[in-house]
Every structure is written in C-alpha cells, then in structure tokens.
Amino acid sequence: MSSRPATLGQLRESGWASVPVKEEVRANTVARIAAGRPIVEGIIGFEDTVLPQLETALLAGHDVIFLGERGQAKTRLIRSLTGLLDEWLPVVAGSEINDDPYRPVSRHGRDLVAERGDDTPIEWVHRHDRFGEKLATPDTSIADLIGEVDPIKVAEGRYLADEATLHFGLVPRSNRAIFAINELPDLAERIQVGLLNVLEERDVQVRGYKLRLPLDVMLVASANPEDYTNRGRIITPLKDRFGAQIRTHYPLDPASELAVVHQEARALNAPGLRVQVPDYMADIVAELSQLARSSTSINQRSGVSVRLSIANYETLVASATRRALRLGEADVVPRVSDLASLAASTAGKVEVETLEDGREGEVVEKLIRAATLGVFRERCPAESLTDVVLAFDEGTVIHAGDDVSSSQYVKVLSQIPALERPVLGLAASETPAAVASALELVLEGLHLSKRLNKHAAGSRATYRGRG
Known about the structure:
By secondary structure, the protein is α/β, with parallel strands linked by helices. The chain is built from 20 helices and 16 strands. The protein folds into two domains: 240 residues, Rossmann fold (3-Layer(aba) Sandwich); 211 residues, no CATH class. Strand 8 and strand 9 form a beta hairpin. Helix 12 crosses helix 13. The mean pLDDT is 89.
C-alpha cells in the first residue's frame, strides 16, 4: 500500500482512470471469460444454466434480480460478485460514500478537494469493502436505505438546511460498489418506490433537501417466486428497471447435489476417530433430497433446500460417530441404521402438503426408504444376491442396529459365505466398520425389495427369510 498514490496529485500522475462500477465489473468479466475462468467461485451446478445468463447480464451492464426458492445459492451468487471488482479503489480520505477523487459528490469530498487540490489525501478501499447488503423486512425504512437527518449533527450547531447534517443510508454508502437487497418482495411497496431513482436516474433524493447525489451503484436483488411469497410483491415499475431477471434452481442430479454437500458440510472429525462416508451412503443423502423435490407430499412452492442435504450428511456422520464412541470403535462409517437419525434434520426443512398434516414422520420415513432402495438397486444387481436370499430361506437370522459392533457383522460373513462377495465388493474395504455398513445396505435393500422380512424396534432390526 505504501507504493500507491497517497494524494490526488500523485493519483493523476500515476495515470489511474476512473470508470463506472458496471464498466469495472464488465471489464473483469471479459477478462475471466477470455481466460476460461468462471466469473464466480464456489458455485456448483449452474455452469450451463444460470452462469451463462449472469455473464450476459454483466456484459450488458445490467442490474440483476435472482428469482428462486430458498437454498438455491442466490445470496452466495450475489456475494461472489465482489470478485469481479478491482482489488483496490482510491477514494477521498474520510468520505462516507467512497467519493471519486476526480468527481466527488458528497459535501465532504467536494470541500476537501476544493480546499486541498492536488494535496487532497487519498485512501484505498479493498473490493471486499465495496459491498453493501440489506435483508428486506417490512420495517425497513427510507432512512435505512437512503438516509435521514442526524439529530446529533443538528445539536452540534449545524442548520437543518446544511447537507452536512445528513446521515447517509446503505445505498449512498455503497457508492462505487455493489449493493444487494435480499428477499426484495418483503420490502414495503412505498419503500420500493424509493429505489426507482437509484436504478434509473442513478441518484438519491433525501426529503426536506434540494439534494441530488449522482451515485454509481450496481444493484442486485434476490426474491422467492411470487406465487409462494404471500408477504408482498415487487412493484411493477421496480421490476421494469432491473435489466435482467435470472431464475435459479436446485441441483439437477445427485452428483451435483453431492458436490455441493462435500463443499459445504462441516468436517466432523474427532480425536482418535477415523471418519469415512461410503459413496453409497452419501448417494442416499443426495437421492433423498432429489426425491423430496418431486414428491407430491412435499410443498414444492416452498422448495427443498440444498441445506437439507448438507444437514442430513452432517447428521449421518454425527450418528455414526455417536455409535462408534459408545462401542469403543476407532472407525466411523455410517450405516443404514443411522438413517433413522435423518428424521430430525429433515422434518424442519420440508413443508408437507396440507393433506399430509400430522403425518410428517411417515412422509420422511417413506422418502428415506425410497432413497435407500434406489441406491441399492443401482449398486447391487439382483442376480448377485440370489444365493443370499436362499440362505435366509433356509432359516438364517441376522440382528442389526446401532448396538451391534462391527466385528459381529464380520462374523456374519463367515457364517453366510454367499454374502461375502456382494458385501466386500460394495464396501471397497475389509475394515470391520466398512463391512458392517455394506452388509446393512444389502440386508435393508433385500427387505425393501420384498425379498427379506424385517422386524424393527427403534434402531434395532432382525432380518429373516420370507418363508
């Protein structure tokens, strides 16, 4: 920073040129696209849908509104846009609204430049500080967004007509930056009117003053679909002023869902424990969310957030960790018996249809069974388990559950040789914990395929033949 210009005169000599924030974003977007780099980092599943539309909107210099259900990475997308700003921006020192040293708009900036000229001190603002955000709520006021008279400044002896008595709101403080409004329909309609000038005329007007601040702001907003949001609406003149409306979506396939989960889920390692989540158990978590998004028992207007998959994945690992600690095992590998714990992390993240009121537990349990069966059929060909079914028809009984140690499951393989090949092939490891997990999936899959009987009591289960 010491090598950067510290005064207005030095800034002029350096050759630095001032450009509008949208031109700045556009130039950096062009550079990223030309270099084959994504315009935003950490966004998965939008490569062929949302991001091309966003690239087009940014190249066109448009204000953008993202429309989509909860948990569709709208806020993450918006916050990632700061990466398209230049790393450092010069402003008039002490300016509350990031005054351009060449064209200051605030009273402070104008007076300082007029007084000091080329000796006007310059400060440098990092791009992460050039982002303003407001969660829209019904009680949000014009003062919050635009500004209001500061009674403290009036008490200090200034006249009400003095521009210096103003306390700027979030929008002016986001001058030469990106300003985001989340859940825009929740903003009262009379307050939305206050944003019209910001989007079209590019200025703000504060009541009681003949004041015009020609702001340089890129406005980005998010909203849920209006057919679900009964709390409010976006007024037509405001919608008309956004250059682009981009529809977001949930992951389109389990692979994309899992990619998000692996990126976002917290590491739940514990001292002395080795955590390993088999691919098939992670697949069940992703498949559960995918099925929920197409279930007629789930309110699809509310949506099924990716947060459901993340929470379920973390819960699955936590349940396996709890069992391993109780049994004194060092390897933490989730099993089918751990899926019962997903009821708690699922119930609060989905809304059942009115006709299903009072049956939330049954709906969630049905989804878990369907997800487990789908993954089982994909991973375990039916013909490879014929001998296993025959062994159960001859009177074999297996007890399973979170109170059964991994070593006990290993003994089952020696008792039923037909299980060894499909279980070890599924486990991809011969550690007792991995074998236990694979064996439970085979047993549960055969039960859900109606080839074995199961008697369950809490987290314990007994599998036997259907004869």
